[in-house]
Amino acid sequence: RSYGQGRAVQGPTLSELPQVLLADLFLPSSEAPDETVLPIQHGLYVVECHICMFFQLIIKTVCSHCGEIFLDSKCQSKQCREDVHPVLVVKAIVLVDDGSNQATVSFHDAILVARLLTLTEKQWNDISEGLSDCGRLVITKDGTDSRLPIAKLLNCLCSSLLVLRPCKLAVVRDKKSPTQNLINKKAMDEFQIRQVKIAKTSVQTWSLPLLSLACFALEEVN
Ligand SMILES: [Zn+2]
Prior knowledge:
two-stranded antiparallel sheet, 5-stranded mixed β-barrel, CATH 2.40.50
């Protein structure tokens, strides 16, 4: 079994892309004050940030034809065809911070997720092999329900300082994010309540929802 069916990490190297702060991606561009969708939200940008928290990791093997879980060498849908094969689907969501703002960053590519988790190709392939016992593995910031040793290992890894580290990411604004047009449609219920500590008291304040980004490349910071 290989790294999966995701895109290979190719295209421009990170040094060729414009480097911005997370706050730059969140604020409206002064060049286009009337536009609903802002130019900076469409491009690929590099941010140097710290991975602060692992929200979610999902790894599953699905049927190449219908997308149902693939388990015990067959598709779990009774209506499905015979000539199908398993496809590895991977998704990770982390929280990052660069001092100017925080953002959630999603990873949908198997090679990228392996790199995010600091795993070698062999380690990653061993994990996909281990998945044949359950078909689906979910790790969240609260832990995992799975009793598989591989789940326990990944759970520890996701919250370790090996993974929660500084890095450079090539990102775009996640167009599916419900907060995409936030600047223009400031509905109060889109804001999040935050508890802020000031001296010995704490106050509740409304703050902007998290910026949502999708990652296309990752580089270590030396
Ligand atoms: Zn199927």
